[in-house]
Specification:
mainly alpha
Amino acid sequence: MSYDQAKIEDTVLALLAAFSFDGSRAWKGFDFDVMDHLHAQGFIDDPKGKAKSVWLTPEGFERGSKIAEQLFGGTSTGAG
């Protein structure tokens, strides 16, 4: 099956933003090619290296947060 690369990159960026810590730092356990594309677009710092996390740029954090809200946002209704 063929996937839309831009949608994959948006989803990964949203996940990075949704699970960020220390301001805009996130674990980088995603596909290397996707991470490289996000870096090339200026959304994250260089993912290459020994560090297990990556910093989102201000633009990346803002865009990722908006996408995360669109994809994952909602209200909890609570069960029971």
